[in-house]
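Final report, results section. Input specification for complex C-07:
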Amino acid sequence: MKYTILVIEDEKPVRKFLLTGLSGNDFKIIEAATGSEGLSLASQFLPDVMLIDLGLPDIDGIEIIKKIREWSHASIIVISARWKENEKVAALDAGADDYLTKPFGMSELQARIRVALRRNSLIQTTQIENTAFEQSFLKVDFASRTVFIKNEKIHLTPIEYRLLSVMIKYAGKVVTHKQLLEEVWGGEKGEDFNQYARVYMAHLRRKIEPDPAHPKILITEVGVGYRLITD
Amino acid sequence: MIRSFATYLWIIAIISICTFVCFSAKEYLTEGDIAMIYLLGVVAVSSRFSWIHSIIAVFLSVALTNFLFVPPLYTFHVENIRSLITFTVMFIVGTVVTWLSMSLRKHNEEMKIKEAEKSQFMQQNEENKLKSEKEKLRNDLLSSIAHDLRTPLSSISGTASVLLQKMNDINNDKRNDMLLTISDEAFRLGRLVENILNITKLESSGFVVKKEWYPLEEIIVSATSRVEKLYKDRNVKISLPDEMIMIHADPVLIEQVIINLLENAAKYSFEKTEINIEAGTENGFIFVCVIDNGPGVKIEDLDIIFEKFQQLQRGSDMKTGSGIGLSVCKAIIKVHNGEIFAQITPENKFKVSFKLPDKEVFTPEKTQ
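Structure output:
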């Protein structure tokens, strides 16, 4: 089965490079040069993944994401420039699943799309009864709430365990500070609270990464949030 | 209309007060004393209102003194010459006081206008100076940008044109190599643009740093992994204290500083030598140092490498650096009230350090 990818991007050279890079075996690509065209194509083709450039001429990218999220759960990957960190966070909080920083390479994009599709299929099979999670040296047994690093049991505080479970729930996807706070502590907490989430995450990383200077599992996306790496 | 009505009420009030004072103490007061008290009222009127109002107050005062306090009482008759002198003096003094107070007020107003004009002039002067400085900065920036962009651009377009022309004559390895050059140089171009955007952002007047509490190690680790991705043959060794250091700063900007320093180290130090990054706290400061195995710059150049658009030669093959990286670092550290400086260590290593004030203390509250 071919997956459908909708590209909403006003720059023609970028569209061209995405089309050549992605089309082929698994993907069918649909292109839109404006936001309004993108919105109508999205409702017409029901794509599996949407790549949305935030700097479109007609509609603000964030607005497009909000509109699409009203009726669709398809994966949305945002494309944006690095110096607009706030914009990325806003896009993720509006419902985007992931982001890519311009300029990016094709292999990076393909990897993100694979993660997005895998997450899609997980959602469709409605929360498969996960009893364990395994990723390189990390193993989590949800039934007994135990965490193993290189097959050795480690101790996590209740908050650290909750943080890790949330990161596993969104494995592969970037989780913003706001989302993390809502999932772990619940409710609106305000920006001041972000700092505590960061401290706990830093402690968690020290516990689960054998070499915290070169993390393999819990990656910090400075100014945006965190990502739990999956193969 | 209403205002002038209010003015007359004021005058009547002031003169009534004088009358009340004089009346209640009339046994103890001479004609001269009474005249003085009324003159006080005239001074009060003339300090606030126009000369016409003051003159009205003078007439009122003279009339009331005559009517209420000078015998025969409750008539406007004047019996003796002394009273006449009192009234005349009262009238003259009242008029003179009015005139003096008017000219004083006029003088003050003129001074105010002059001062306003002067400060406006100075402000304009200042603005012009700032404008010309900004213009110079912009010109410097433009010429520097043009220089910095040209290098990667020419390798990209050059390599691409060779590929287009001789596609079939080039073997696979060579072709891969050339494509890699294009891709690497394009990414280099991207980072340059990032720095350029950062510096223009920092130089713009409306820019505000968005400070947040962040674990320093997160920023250092993230910056390091970005640089290691770009320079795969280089190993960055991170040395951090066990305690977790929290900094109050714009994390994205500080990450940019560390990326720039590490990238400089990777670009200009001897190939495959180790790069070290160290961080800690000291005397109320948080410091971060990036140390490479050299070669460094000349000792006399240590201070000027952070100046805008300085392109110094560093290293055995005299690579010229982009003049932008370090000036971006300096601008970022400056908006954080910190310092950045370079040293040659006794072991002849090249070390760039920045420190940020650690005055604001992070206080974790209960979060359970």
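Chain A touches chain B through 31 residues (CB under 8 Å). Helices of chain A lie at 12-22, 35-45, 61-69, 85-93, 106-124, 158-169, 177-184, 194-208. This concludes the modelling results for the funded period.
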